[in-house]
Design a protein that fits this description.
The chain has 113 residues and is mainly α. Helices cover 65% and strands 0% of the residues.
Amino acid sequence: MQPLMALRAVLHVLRDRLTAEQAVHLGAQLPLLIRGLYYEGWRLAEKPAGERRPDEFAALVAAQMPPQFTRDALRVTKAVFNLLAKELDRGEVAKIIATLPIPLRSLWPTKAA
């Protein structure tokens, strides 16, 4: 259950950092079960969240994970991004990475960027 909670936390923070159009395109790439986690509780925002640094992103991920989860949120984020880069369409991943602030791009594996 903890891996799903970690996946959910990272996907929610990423989703909220994207424009609505980008978020929907990413959601369309996800398997049905994961798509449900991704869209859970989503409220369409006028503009993406404003965090620009990896530590800010990781702090938001940590805030969404259960308190008993003992993993480092930055490592969890990188692991989820590595999984997304392996499993999703490369073009879609490249578009997502290109829209992120440069410091956040470093969270993705280099081969994805």
